[in-house]
Amino acid sequence: MDLIYFSPVPWNSIAQRPHFFIKEAIKQGFDNIIWVNPTPSRFPELYDLRRVLSPFEASSFDIPPQVKVISPRLIPIEPFNSGYKLLNKSKLDIIVAEIKSEIKHESRHIVVGKPCLLAEKVLAEIDFTSTALDMMDDFPCFFSGLSRVSVGKTLERMIQQVDLCIYSSTSLGEKYSLTNLNSMLVLNACDEHFLQKAQSRKRNPRTEKLIFGYVGTVATWFDWDVVLKLSSQYPESEIHIVGPNYSSTPSALPTNVTLFPAIEHSKVSEVIATFDYGLIPFKQNELTESVDPVKYYEYLAHQIPVISTPFGQMKYRIENNNVHDFSVFSVNYQIEPESTVTWHNRFRPFFNLLKQ
């Protein structure tokens, strides 16, 4: 079977839902997968130069032999929809022709992980056995101005065009009225290999100091205030922040807060095994309202308690006493953690439906 997947993140980035989706697709029998790296949905900014000159992101994992990665190079003016199509016409045609040339089977499927004009063109010009949209985030919230309007309209059109929408959090389904027969809630999960590695790994001997740890991207949604409050509440502890940093860091961090660079996904389990508590310090805003963080499941795999702010899917876990709330956290308070769920169990119902 063929699968064309429009990813919201590049292959060479921290392993996220799209990477694990592809791993499960291979298990489900897709032997020819075309991964399309994301194209810009906004105009270039000066900040983009920093990403080019200082690529902090860590790679996910090696590209499987069943996967071909395509990286479109287009003039980044997608918010000007008509102008974008006109100026990029020849390039768009070449990309579609390349995708067509890679198709090998009668059974061909497309999953759009990032709504964009290129994906719309492919949907219009290639006949597919099934079409689906995977909403891992509230995409328009990543943008502002004309870019936000453009992405929002593209998303709304795509919801109507595809056979099935899957969404990664309760709030996404409610916001876009996806709670019907043509949609499916598919929360995030933990990689099966990661879980096995976590279960087989011996916990490092505890030191006298508690270690609170975070592994992931530090960006505008990272809530430094709750981290600094925690460091003050437990001054004898250590707080480890591990991952690429794209935000403004407080000028004078407390001595018990240490920043570490991005690591390969293969090293994440080793690092989490050193933590006593896993942190998810995200701000509560429109963007995080739709988030179900993968790191939550990775912390669960190591059987360490989680401290979170009440955003997105995490607010339900705080209400159910599965997770500590930063605002009232105490090492003396007991929670009732959930069991870890793997990507295989999450995605299996979707793939079963896809192959009917």
Mean pLDDT: 91
Distance between the termini: 13 Å
Q: What is the number of strand segments?
A: 13
The second-level CATH architecture of the largest domain is 3-Layer(aba) Sandwich
Contiguous runs where pLDDT drops below 50 for at least 5 residues: none
Overall number of domains: 2
What structural class do helix, strand and pairing data support? alpha/beta
Apparent shape = globular
Instruction: Describe the main β-sheet briefly.
Output: 7 strands, parallel
User: Strand-and-helix sequence, N→C?
Assistant: EHEHEHHEHEHEHEHEHEEHEHEHEH
- Radius of gyration (CA) equals 21 Å
GO molecular function: transferase activity
Keywords: Transferase
Protein name: Glycosyltransferase
Organism: Photobacterium lipolyticum
Layout: helices, strands, pairs:
Layout: E1 2-6, H1 17-27, E2 32-36, H2 47-53, E3 67-70, H3 81-87, H4 89-102, E4 108-112, H5 117-125, E5 130-135, H6 145-161, E6 164-167, H7 170-175, E7 183-185, H8 192-200, E8 211-215, H9 224-233, E9 238-242, E10 257-260, H10 268-272, E11 277-280, H11 294-301, E12 306-308, H12 314-319, E13 324-325, H13 343-354
Helix pairs in contact: 1-13
Keywords: Transferase
GO molecular function, one term: transferase activity
Protein name: Glycosyltransferase
